[in-house]
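Think of the structure tokens as a kind of shorthand, similar to the way a musician reads notation: each symbol stands for something richer, in this case the local conformation of the backbone. In the example below we present two proteins back to back. Begin with the first one, reading the sequence and then the tokens, and try to describe in your own words what changes along the chain.
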Amino acid sequence: MRKVGIFLAILILALSVSAVFGQETATTYPQPSEYGPAILNWGPNVKYGGTFTFLNTAPYSYSLNPFFPSTGLPSYGFIYEPLMYMSPNGDTTYFLATSYKWINNTTLEMTIRKNVKWTDGVPFTAKDVAFTFNYIKEHPSIDTNAVWAPINHLKSVEATNDEVIFSFSKPSYASLPIIASQQIVPEHIWSKIEDPSKDTNLNPVGTGPFIFQSFNQANQVAVYVKNPNYWMKGRPYIDKFVAKGTYGGNQATLLELLKGDGDVAQMYIPGVESAYLSKNPNNKLWWPVMGNNYLITNDAKYPFSIPEFRKALSLAMNRQFIVMSDYGKYLQDYENPTMIPLPQISWMDPTLTPLASSLVTYDPQKAQQLLASIGFKKNKDGLLMDPQGNVLPPYTIKVVSGWTDWITGAQILCDEFKDIGLRVTVDQESFGAFYSDLQNGTFDMTVVGYYATTPNPYQMYFSALSSYQTAPIGKPAIGNFCRYTNPLIDDALNVFNSNPDPRIQKQAIWTIERIVLDDMPIIPFLPGPFWYEYQTRTLEGFPNAEYPYTYVLASSESIIALNVHLK
């Protein structure tokens, strides 16, 4: 998306030159708006009206509590807005804030947008922003973004005129995306709510582009209508946003989409060509690869605790075959053992590219040679033995029941691991049991996805590999489920978080990349897409490979609702 910024600079220069010489210059739409790259200007002839219907693959609960956006009806961005949207590729689009700057190493200043009103007519001010953050501090149970977690060093939040000042006890540059994404609530409403963790907030008052109208729980249909006084002039183009839940999962959602009862769904569709794309020329998809699903080995458990053993597993994996078996030609094959996601490839140390490629090249013979170098050899029956001559026991790969791409891929892995003498089976579990095993370390191997959700790789590395996120086997880990720890990674994360200089931040990330390649704590398995299917029978303006103005995150659907319009 930085290319878009360069394009804008060239366009502005061209317009200036044409004005000097009295020439008329045609404008090509769409192009980024004044708010930032995520809000596109679709031109003066854009059509207004219509309804945008989102199909959820699970039922909704009747709650609009903005502090628990994943457990109820959509509220993020539709009703309650963040300060900024910071894209995984580093772009910023401004919502309730119009700018920010670091005054010093421990002080962040944000300028708050003027002339915004809550949907009940009360003016929105910087005091609402300061109230929201201090309210979260007062009620830790609603701090789902971990804004006030000790690792972020936030000390105080104060409003002064049109600015909000965030003060930190230590430098914490990596906390900016967390602060930027926090939904802001009105002080005059929420100051009267004693326990926000239990409030379902059925009459929400926000600053967003839509007003909640109704929810039919039996039919799982929520209706939102256009906010006529929305501060972003001319938006939204559509009159209504409808969210429809389903009790039937992916298959029921697909049927709804095929019938034309919805515009968008977010799900994996096996055999997508025959099952979806071929049914109607208006059926489209965009599956941007935003990271990887990793084979997580239990690094606190022998023999997975040995880096060379993990590297041998990587060499025994035929990823291209697995990707084609799972997704066909519609998903880009992307494996990067440094963990750098595709949208953040500019953070990759170019000198590490050859080594990274060699670690994900399918070569079972080299895998056996690597195992032999650390004393692991096959017996006459073709079973792998440890250096003491003991045959390794059977192992399992735990996956979530019903997650067909993971299951298919894991079953292929079991066959491929036979070539190096390992006996492996797939163990399908309910999500609850799977996640409990993940947290407590009661697994041999499993699958976990890590994706680009912030403007840099810091949060991903912190979640996946920080020692602050893990725990011994038998105790629940917050993240770092592989249970690999390295003080050099912790140090590099601290350097990144303590320095605003992009060069120093990049050096810190490069340090982590080198360590990850040396030790391979987790193993790239499948590309990690954000699933996005949409139909263009009535609406257009959806994000796609040509116009990737936003990526399909849980927080992005409201941005899409500000861009889509009638054909």
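Once you have a description of the first chain, move to the second and do the same.
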Amino acid sequence: MSEESHERVRFTVPGMDCSSCAGTVDSALSGIDGVSSVDPAAATGRVAVVYDPERVAESTLIDAIEAAGYEVTSSGRNGVAESRRIWTSTRALKTWASGLFLFAGLALVVAGIDAAVVTVLGVEHTLSDLAFLLGTIVGGEIILRNGVVSARQFSLDIDFLMSVAILGAVTASLGFGEGLYFEAATLAVLFNVAELLEEYSMDRARNSLRELMDLSPDEARVRRDGTELVVPAETVEIGDIVLVQPGEKIPVDGTVLEGESAVDQSPVTGESVPVDKTAGDEVYAGTVNEVGYLEIETTAGADEHTLARIVDLVEDAQSAKTDREQFVDRFSDYYTPVVVSLAVLAVLVPPLFFGGAWNSWFVRGLTLLVLACPCAFVISTPVSVVSGITSAAKNGVLIKGGNHLEAMGEVDAVALDKTGTLTKGELTVTDVVPLNGNSEDDVLRCARGLEKRSEHPIGDAIVAHAEQAAVTDHDVTEFESITGKGVSATLGGISHYAGKPALFRELGFDLSHVHATTDGGVVTARTQQLCERNNCLDLLSETIPDLQRAGKTVVLVGTEDKLEGVIAVSDEIRPGAAEMVERLHDLGVQEVVMLTGDNERTARAIAREVGVDDFRAELLPEEKVAAIRELEAEHGSVAMVGDGINDAPALATATVGVAMGAAGTDTALETADIALMGDDISKLPYLRDLAGQANGVIRQNIWASLSVKALLVVLVPFGLVPIWVAVLIGDAGMTVGVTGNAMRLSRISAE
């Protein structure tokens, strides 16, 4: 059966909140005929399954998960396990009841009123023994049930190990009079408490992604057949007209048909300032309409809008494991069998060969079993990755994998595209120099007439500037585009030209002697004698080079015998670009380089203004790739920042490819490793800072959890680690600790 016939579904499994649980669910599904892949994510409580619907039904998959001991609450494309009533759940209530029996047994012992009440197999059992046994039964039921499932799947997980420990303690007490009921009850109570704490910690970790999903409203107001209806947001279809009042969330991706408003796009793009929207502008689901009424034509379905894709990609990001996460997985494959073996040796060797007390060494063996499952160690990396990635998403940065987050924190060089990255990618008129008695309006009027039929971006910029300046228009005839040089047309019956300086040199102009007075006199550029008595400009050696050194493109405007003016056009540098480069250096980036296909003079001007360490100009796409490889050879790891489309080869070659302005752009969302959803270049230092701190948190979590476990394992044979310490510190304590440490990443802001 071809892969094309397979379907992918995600199940929400709230109880799957640790690596052991994820492994159990994985085992339950992987053996089913028709299932081609299983990807459980404990950090979000979701499991993705790719299966052949002709060979296995979705209901069969749900049954398999529930047979493994985990409830399935929903299925679908996007989502995260919903928040649960952890402290009043069935498990919690049984835990509290088990704790009461444990406390009652201890009270009987302390009060000195403990008496023998029954003899089993020649062993007397006291009131406290019965209280402890009842506590073990009540609290241990769910542990043993999960342990049986693990045993069936040959999984050496924490449920199986705790089941063996509890059953071993009860058996030793019943059959051999070892008096380990207290230890059995303590294990049942404290392990359940540990699991509840783990659920609570994981629920906090899931909150950040849950908040991201909740940005999209549940309902939408639509107009259908002239009638306004309120419908579930997931039923809105492409082409529907959605009506959004001031203060409401926009439920869809779409195009504004009517109305004007400021829209808070921070949930998607991270922009701190609301963006004005009018007819024809794009809007995104989850953003907030602040002041005006909008009518929006839907352009994407409920599962396909930008916010849904972000949530989808954030969930998928967990499947791309970091190097540290892979190390943890490899280490845990050896750790658990080794510690279980030590537990067996601890129970048998000292009593058999060195005269040790069976009771003491049995308890130490149980303690080692408790420490044998590295839950906190294994969860330390994924919970940090989820925290970091969801924090980034809420700040307008989409990171498509933990491996990319880790790599971004370690890059030593950053390559920046110029157009659309360091600059806005929108040409604007910066200078108008009138010549030969003309005013600025005169120059713009002629330029507008010449350029309004041109399809060149420079022409568009000049026309837009002239319209903004409200200059009058010319009647235009006989328009002609002069390839590579400029344009010509007849304005008011007179032939005019606009283009490069080379065009006017071909027309016979001496650009080194141009009359710059504005006294209204009619002076030709060819009349050099007049320049001996009047103020003249040397355009070739002064004006034009000065403008070009500033990174501007120069356009001359004139007739066949008179130069009327100079217009300079520039791609404006993004606000904060220079501060961004400086901040990257402060964060440890060794070299920031600008790569551009623009000419060297313009590139040099931009590079000087933003403060990059180096620049490379006049590069073709394949030459940008070569430049990235050279930087990697020198520095080891390089991030490339571009627009996600034109720079695709360089983005793919770099260690980390970062796309700018990806909101609403399928190509950038799908191809980039990391996407800045808005056009805010200042998010780059935030990304580097977040990634660096995430790597630090992951290292802290790994070594802290590993060190604590190792220390406890070493101390157990010396009798220095009570079983309650192993449960509360080695299991629950470290799980809560690494989760809390990971949550620090959610507080890092781009502001």
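Compare your description with these statements about the second chain. Residues 517-534 have pLDDT under 50 and may be disordered.
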